[in-house]
């Protein structure tokens, strides 16, 4: 994608975006509502009227091709199945349009229904399927055409939490097993982290950062990223100095301490740690973890998270928490 800009009704919704995705990987667009994720996906699929910039697929420019000449598949949140066609015929539809023979259709549809574990539903109609099954039909219908890239726009958001997790893992498994290039849109961080090779974080029509889930979590490039991904404590220079960390007084950076990096004991050389003494102000049980909000003796409000099997504290208790100096991440603006 080179210098992509898109105006919708006079609004510049996408602003000079540049990014690359690798073949046979799963890349996710992650960003707040309105950041432009769907607009970029539609541009790749050829569903936007007018764009500026270049879209290259396998080194060839495709931005001027009609949608049906791009060999790109797209899956939406609403499954968009044909209600009057069986599961088999829904999946076979695109192959029939391509005038494939009945023998080829039978073989390809059979194989893909096996992949998505719906062989025994091939005669069923969409109204008799669960939401997760309908979405698997939609995925099979797109995959059977062997698109060069499969675009998935919030495909799981209509499903309940448990099915959503199951299906996201299945999508990742199909992608890896069949070696498909997928571009997935979500605003759910956990979903993006769980299934992606790479995440492209968007805000306000621009790429904020692209990298592996671990890279973007551990090394946010700017303050937006630090705030957007995961839970965080953000300290300014003076606040960090008040905890005894040597930082130049005129350093304008911000410093991030992820709450889960606090420890209740030092496990190495004490010179490598900062010590935060304070009192527990508030406790939130997060399920597998507990979040403590504490007020430090020098007046900072900080969050610390621990697995809940570890030692637990009560509100008002005086505590000492430790964090490795090397775990404090410095970020620019
Ligand atoms: N047809 C349109 N005319 C004018 N502005 C539009 C149009 N469609 C979308 N927009 C604006 O473009 C911006 C990006 O929209 P887009 O749907 O791509 O965001 P998104 O990141 O996919 O959001 P969501 O997660 O809510 O689906 C939004 O500010 C939206 O209001």
UniProtKB/TrEMBL annotation:
This is ABC-type quaternary amine transporter. It is an enzyme of class 7 (translocase). Transmembrane segments: none annotated. InterPro entries: AAA+_ATPase, ABC_SmlMolc_Importer, ABC_transporter-like_ATP-bd, ABC_transporter-like_CS, Mo/tungstate-bd_C_term_dom, P-loop_NTPase, Transp-assoc_OB_typ2. It holds the Pfam family ABC_tran. Its EC number is 7.6.2.9. Keywords: ATP-binding, Nucleotide-binding, Translocase, Transport. GO terms for molecular function: ABC-type quaternary ammonium compound transporting activity; ATP binding; ATP hydrolysis activity. Residues 1-229 form the ABC transporter domain. GO terms for cellular component: ATP-binding cassette (ABC) transporter complex. It comes from Liquorilactobacillus mali KCTC 3596 = DSM 20444.
